[in-house]
Amino acid sequence: MVFVQHPRERTVAIGTARMAHLALEGSALVEGLRLDEHAALAHLFAPDAHVAVLYPDGARPLEAWLPRPPTTLVVVDGTWAQAKKVLKLNPRLGALPRLGFVPAAPGNYRIRREPSDQHLATIEAVAAVLGALEGDPARFAELLRPFSWMVERQLEATRDQQRARYARPRRGSRGPTPPRAPAARGLDELRALDPARAVLVYGEANTHPKGARAPGAPELLHLVALRPATGARFEALLRPRRHLPDDVPARLGLTPAALMGGEEPAAAMARFRQFLGPAFTQVSWGGYARDLLVQEGEPKRGFVDVRALAARALGGCAGGVHGAARALGVDLVVEGPRAWRMLTLLAGTYGALRARVDDNDAAAATPGDTWCRAPARSS
Q1: What's the whole-model pTM score?
Q2: Domain with 283 in it: what CATH number?
Q3: Count of structural domains within the chain
């Protein structure tokens, strides 16, 4: 195992490459921008070296590396822009074979904003890939113990800072300012939503790697929806209209045959409009699902963004729908294609936030200011 680290990543206090390096006996960590001639990397370029660089663009999927996995795995540590720069500045390193990995679930890096749920912390990616290559996921899952501990401590420190800020007395006041109930903070948009109108929507797209220059924009492939008030569900697989990359079916948890045999987009959209009915409010995680629907010809309507609501309720970045669900105490045991797994997490997060609103409204309707009551003393 060789970690190649962008210099700026070394100064990041919550970086995880060094944590993984210290936990993996025999691994090496090399820092710099121009490393093709670095002595510690010379063995990577030997004619008989069986090496793979963990990087998605132009990569063979992980399954294609089995049953003969690489003897050395190279991990480029940094932001995606930094990793791309390292490979560009080092042609020999950039020319090595690449290994692509699609995570089965979003990561737990809730203290650092990731571009999407497909992006993991370095130590999470390493643990998952090594577990798959060596056929022993449980062994490498132990790498995540210190990582999870660090994440929880960082979140706890953030919450402590917020509580201290709420407790500071206002200038000229006689005592501390009472904290606002967590359920009320930033959830007025959800309070105004009629539950009977809510329709949870999640979509997966036919995306191509950056730099592939594939014609056309990302197109909707798998659309799922749920009416929480009734439990009614909707699903549509849309036939791809442009080239379908080899890694997309695996990422979505579907077979190529199922996707290629999907509905015509116009027919799928007609069914979806019938499911929505005349009175509805779209509820999604961010605006991606709405943008995909607009790409398919649907009008751009207003919607409720659960990602923004979760960030307000949790006092910061929610860490993806997986992290938000975990923080709100939602059951995370989900199975099936990725779209259904994500919709289940979205539904759980929406339900937990809705419960906070209902509990807060019930507390507000109770006479008296219960926040200032002292706990009863035991004799």
Answers
A1: 0.52
A2: 3.30.420.10
A3: 2
